[in-house]
Amino acid sequence: MLYCCVLLFSCNEAIKKDDHHIIEVQKTDQAPTLDGKANEGIWNHVEWYALDQNWLGGSYTHEDFSGRYKLTWDANALYVLVEINDDMLFDKNKDPLKLYWDDDCLEVFLDEDNSGGLHQFNHNAFAYHIALDGNIVDIATDKQPRLYNGHVISVSTTEEQLTTWEMAISIYGDGYVDGTANKPKQLAKNKKMGFALAYCDNDGSMERENFIGSVFIPGEDKNRAWIDADLFGTLILKE
């Protein structure tokens, strides 16, 4: 019996996340100015990626929603540029910790060591909900939502239906402990991180109407990235 338990533990330890939706991220020599305007040279030299996988909700039109994003990095942060075309921005819940997923918001999924696995009530990975007012929410280890505003600096601007977001994301590992001083990781060439991006779209309903992500999720239940980091894509940092 002991042998079987040891064998099972060893097999489980050997299970690794399968890399998929792999993106090589170019390093920047100068951190972008976070003003929601995307006027730094680095943004002209890196590729757009689509935000086009409908994880939740019925069909939608291009006029209702479309999204795309770019990535770059330096030693201190991962930088994300996002363009969202949305015909209506909706922020019903003024309490940032209440039903935050039913307002229009971005969601950034990050797994510092690309290990995959469950992260619903731990910090094996993070699922940052970035509200229109800039508040950052994830679920803490006590199973309650908490503000993580120090993890992500986000600035957005809106012209007509186009909202441009610029973000600097500090990267924390699975050793993060809520309520204590935690030091973000320094990033380096060839590091792998789990990553996905999504947008909650609500045009005035009681609940969000769509949840649109950056990676394909197999099966009928596609709203699983907030629980399972195996579903994240993989970033590889390059110079």
How would you describe the overall organization of this protein?
- The chain is mostly beta strands and 239 residues long.
- It contains one helix and 14 strands.
- Strands 1, 3, 6, 7, 8, 9, 12, 13 and 14 form a nine-stranded mixed β-sheet that branches.
- The protein is globular, with a radius of gyration of 18 Å.
- The N terminus is likely disordered.
Write the layout of secondary structure elements.
Blueprint lengths: L1 H13 L7 E5 L22 E3 L1 E4 L8 E9 L4 E9 L18 E7 L14 E6 L4 E4 L5 E3 L4 E8 L2 E8 L22 E10 L8 E4 L19 E6 L1
Short description:
With 239 residues, the chain is mainly beta. The chain has 1 helix and 14 strands; from the N terminus they run αββββββββββββββ.
List its traits.
single chain, 239 residues, mainly beta, nine-stranded mixed sheet, globular, disordered N terminus
- Arithmetic mean pLDDT: 92
DSSP summary: helix tally: 1
Structural class: mainly beta
What is the percent of helical residues?
Answer: under 10%
In sequence order, what are the helices and strands, one letter per element?
A: HEEEEEEEEEEEEEE
- What's the Cα radius of gyration? 18 Å
- What's the total count of β strands? 14
Percent in strands:
35-45%
Poorly predicted residue ranges:
1-14
N- and C-termini, Cα separation: 50 Å
Largest sheet data: 9 strands, mixed
The multimeric state of the shown protein is single chain
Shape: globular
